[in-house]
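Continuing from the previous page of notes. For each protein in this section, the sequence appears first, followed by its structure tokens. Read the first protein now.
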Amino acid sequence: LMPQPGAPAPLTVRIPYGPRMISRDNKGSSQAIFEHRRIIVPRGEIVLPDNADHKAALAFEEQKRPQRAIRFASQFVVHFLLCQMLIAYLRLFGQSRIRLLRTQIGLMALLALTLTTEKIVLLFTKLPEFWVPNAALPLWIALVFDRRASLMVGIGLAFFSASFHAYDPVLLTVVLVRGIVAVLSFSDRKHPEQMLRAGLMSGIAGALTFAALTMIVEGQFHGPRDILMGMSNNLIACVGGGLAAGVLARWLH
């Protein structure tokens, strides 16, 4: 993101949900307003010095750059602990095949591929992060191995995904709900086509969760009004991301 007027933003900047005080001129009088929402500056948008959202995005980016060693070490500690807990759970409670080292290496590779895909979507598109089909990997694990392992992988994946957004609680909760509902809805491994239904159910559950959390966090919800935004609408993204996870898991099968 470039602070100079007229310079295009090279990457999409997304600020996690958070409170802020802003001032607005209302018929000649200054008014302070409390907001609690996410700010997204799409890639290629012209940065304006008098735009409040652009100022907030620049401040958010500047506090992370240059990357400090303590921040990098903190992220490493969190990710390392998540990986260790996930591997320990699979070795202690997973079925015989999932306890094999080569199986766990394969699962970690798929986990890394999922997160890489999510990062590319976040950096180079203005699509909401809820479009990423995070539940595809847990669904596939539920089919190939067992649902206990898939639930744990889904929980770990939710925390990894939220780390891209400073552990945004709304994103974390939605991804958790979608992953758990997808696995619980996929009850018959003899019929892999149920993955599509499981993905749709997870998307609907994610959309309901998002609507409820938005109302709790922001105090208002404009979902029906924003539905005309199409693919940029968060509700549509929640449902679409869940359905896309079902389609992708079925394709992986």
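Done with the first. The second protein uses the same format. Note its length before scrolling.
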Amino acid sequence: MTVEQIGDLPDRIITANDKPITDGAYVLIILDRALRGKDNPVIEAAIAHAHVLELPIIVFSELDTTIVHASDRLCYFTLGAFRELAKTLIEQNITCIQSIRKMGENSLESLVTDAAVIYTDEDYTHWDRTKCDRLLNLAQQTVFTVDASRLVPTRKLPEGLKTTPEFRKAHGSLRDRYLELRQAARSANQKTSTTNKTLENIPLHNFAEYTDAELTQLVSQLDIDHKISISKQHPPTQAVISDRLKTLQEHILKKYKWIRNNPALEYSTSELSPYLHFGMVSPHQILEAIEASEIPKSYTWKFRDEFLTWREWSHYQAFYDPNIHKYASLPDKAKQTLEAHAVDDRPELRSFEDILHGNTPDATWNAAQREWLNTGWLHNNLRMYWSKQILRFTESPQKAWSTACYLNDHISLDGRDPATYASMQWAFGKGKTGYSEKPIYGLVAPKSDRAILKREGMKEWIEKRSNK
């Protein structure tokens, strides 16, 4: 079967440059964020093309230690994802090469040189676009990008959607179609092509056999930020993903719409966002877990909406706004009112170190920041409160935005993502205005912790983190 005949693949693939397919030795797959060996449209598309070209495939992933947010936490999680990916690919008899990019090194270049054609995943933050641009600058052959991160391919949605209700309507009308097409693509049951050609002079290194201790030791030797520690609460393994999907089915779906705003309750959220961000699990796999549960849709609709509408709406926004991570991308009215109040007194100003370690006058905010700093993950309801308060602790709205982005990018396992940037944009005024003008915030709606403190167990949750 050709790519054009396989499920949703034709709708997910984009030709990213105008280079030809060359007389190379293999089809190269570069996985930056779709770090999974199954239910992966990038791999499926490349296998189909490799059959036509009668070439083998190579899957390559690279940990880049030169990026500004490289830390023990993010590098360990990435290498753990690499390990799970490598295990799955080896089971499928697919060649897997994984490396660590250090300053001045470019292990990607030699692999690109000998490839006939290249397939890679497509994502939309500035971090993702920078990686793609680097590849396109190297490639002298055709590069195809594949939408592997979203249930509905972003380009198949109408342009110009301005509001969440508009997006929900357009997206909702396509969900069933793309779930069926994805199932059809998986059922094609493709095998890697066989060939007499051999791969020579290629170091076939991957992390499949590394233990947790070996990965930890390796990370400790890298030239990165060692102050942001590895998260023990969110191990990068398929076993944890399976456990969390099971918990979603058995405990979360039936009560999610009632308890989703309470971080103190055990089953108020799935905690799958780090694994979605790194592509260790696909949105199709999560939706199928929901469909397979015995919970009525009248109970599960809210989780579906949060997981599908809001997450993919943020990706849609990032696709059309490459600068979603910048203060300048905030709505003009929000910037105008925030800047008009930039001269207001800020009696709660704090240093960056105090903000980083959760040493402010706000006990609720401190607990949220310490949870995020210590574990790499924070409940979404607290993130909304967290983002709003940054404006109180910094000397200007621009400084507040850069501080929020820095913390999101450096300490959060699911940071550097369209969803996290969109959430912060909401906090800084992309949404309904406040009912009246307030100091510091202007017409940007503030958010208090009164409702948070009334929720069952939250005072104890905050107190526990205040003593750390």
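What the second structure shows: The longest helix spans residues 164-187. The chain has 20 helices and eight strands. We return to this in next week's lecture.
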